[in-house]
């Protein structure tokens, strides 16, 4: 089935065998009872014959190469004239590491063909920097490159299919284009001559080449469960995109509640599904999808995407046919000024972050080091995403 000619193993990208579950990951089955609603972990020191309760994962604040949890604070943003955003503190800023990832990312983008005439602007956007800010528990350039590639491919599909008309984006063409995305990431079974026709179509579209290439890199580092987590979450995200396309085509503004219902499944939750893969470990699927864990990561992802709406509102307000943006929708629905709508969105963001913080405390007693590391990873992602949005030129 279709893969890019270089199969990701170009210079600077070291091939690796999938690591499989880490030693800590094998504990997931033993905490099955503990994650059931209402269950109480056994007392410390009581193995119950088979369950050994470990000390919860408690990260130390270090600059690189280890898990980080620097705490929460109110942080100024924009020109400083609005209420602060309640956020985790940024765990790591390493410009040299970011530059190394970005350089490799641009070389990859040139090979797969995305942003062919915009590589300088693509480099300045800094998806490699985003990866280093959002994943501070590793300094492995290849793993960080993986995170940058997958995110860049997602953003490319947004630009080429949904948002940028000068790149060919069209609301009426979006749904059939998205239908091919999953074939690029998760190949269907062979269908004779029709498979050859599919492969030809996949090779002709740089976005699909990028998604296929990034997924091939993903498979070298991730377990099958983690790969399918990424594929399924990507598909879930694209369902929301079809709603945005319909609203844009019909020139309709959805009510805020409906936009949020779609946006919560099209948030940086999608990016956060990479946390353990980039970190080099595995959070067991039964823990990742446990309802309280799922709620926590959704809270973090939605908070992070509201940051995106806040930073992009000025640019989007200037469009003749703007994208859906929570600030613009609040202003329209409430009949208030843009400044008042921004304050409402800031308050909503802060509520989501505090909700995640409460969820993190609630889950702190579960005896899974991988889970605690993953939750700290979501915390770090919120901080890193904020730092990136504050510095990238993409939304200016």
From TrEMBL:
It catalyses: (E)-2-methylgeranyl diphosphate + H2O = 2-methylisoborneol + diphosphate. Its cofactor is Mg(2+). The keyword Metal-binding applies. The keyword Transit peptide does not apply. Residues 1-27 are annotated as: Disordered. Belongs to the terpene synthase family. 2-methylisoborneol synthase subfamily. This is Terpene synthase. It comes from Actinomadura vinacea.
